[in-house]
Specification:
Layout: E1 9-15, E2 20-23, E3 29-42, E4 48-60, H1 61-70, E5 76-89, E6 95-108, H2 113-116, H3 121-144
Parallel strand pairs: 4-6
Antiparallel strand pairs: 1-3, 1-5, 2-3, 3-4, 5-6
Amino acid sequence: MAARSLNKVILIGNLTRDPEMRYTNSGTPVVTFGMATNKSWKDTNGETKELAEFHNIVAWNKMAEICQQLLAKGMKVYVEGSLTTRSWESEDGTTKYKTEIRLEDMILLDNKGKQGAGISEEGQEKEEKVEEKKEEEVEEVASDEEVPTEDQDPLEEDLPF
């Protein structure tokens, strides 16, 4: 019997940049954004030290569309997903690697929405309408999202980034 394993990431942090929507060659929506998490502690001298970690987040399909509509730089969010590592060959022939968090669930922790993140009132009105549909859409994400089989890696598809 094979041993069980778990690939799960849970983070609470702030977006470091606005979500960037792109589409694969087959038309699948993909959103990428950055997130920062902070840690603080007191060293042996009693001084407070701080450390920031930066994470790359990738969302696919309906979740990508939801992130594009609701998220903005500076917002505090809860994200849940799994670690994935992509590799590619650079122009100079070296192999490059990038580890990302493939988003499965996201919860807004800022009640301010995009307006609190510096988005105009017009954008806020649009965001409020989208917010009303968010719960329905999040429920549909699980059924709408294409779940890759063992043989199919969605990250192998030619991405424009």
